Amino acid sequence: MTAERVCAESEISVSEARRVVLGGIPIAVVKDSAGEVHAIGDTCTHGDISLSEGFVEDDAIECWAHGSRFSLTTGKPLNLPAYEPVPVFTVEIIDGDIFIDPTITKAN
């Protein structure tokens, strides 16, 4: 599979997350507090909760249901109750558009 356009970068505000599904994989596209765009698995590893509905602060996203925070760069949980990482996907920004290939993940 090749990278797919998910949206324009300007459509996501700073400290905002948006859920997309590519190739059947739910992905949270997140613009962190510094304005950098990230893509991580959208399902909290502690429970079946969408991370894109959570809270973005600095370079982490917090699950609204149980409070686990995940690094947007590594996918690793930063606190309990989650202890398993979420996948992190490579993001390309081309001419102001965000592209993600759901078959390529970064090592956790």
Total strand count, please? 9
Distance between the ends: 21 Å
Provide the low-confidence segments as ranges.
none
Biggest sheet: strands, sense, closure? 6 strands, antiparallel
Count structural domains. Answer: 1
The CATH class is: Mainly Beta
Q: Give the class from helix and strand content and strand pairing.
A: mainly beta
Tell me the name of the CATH homologous superfamily.
Answer: Rieske [2Fe-2S] iron-sulphur domain
User: Percent range for helical residues?
Assistant: under 10%
Secondary structure tally, helices: 0
What form results from the Cα inertia axes? globular
Radius of gyration: 13 Å
Query: Which strands sit side by side, in order, in the main sheet?
Result: 1-9-8-4-3-2
CATH fold topology: Rieske Iron-sulfur Protein
CATH architecture: 3-layer Sandwich
- Beta-strand percent range: over 45%
Order of helices and strands: EEEEEEEEE
Average pLDDT number: 95
Protein name: Non-heme iron oxygenase ferredoxin subunit
GO molecular function, one term: monooxygenase activity
Keywords: 2Fe-2S, Iron, Iron-sulfur, Metal-binding
Pfam families: Rieske
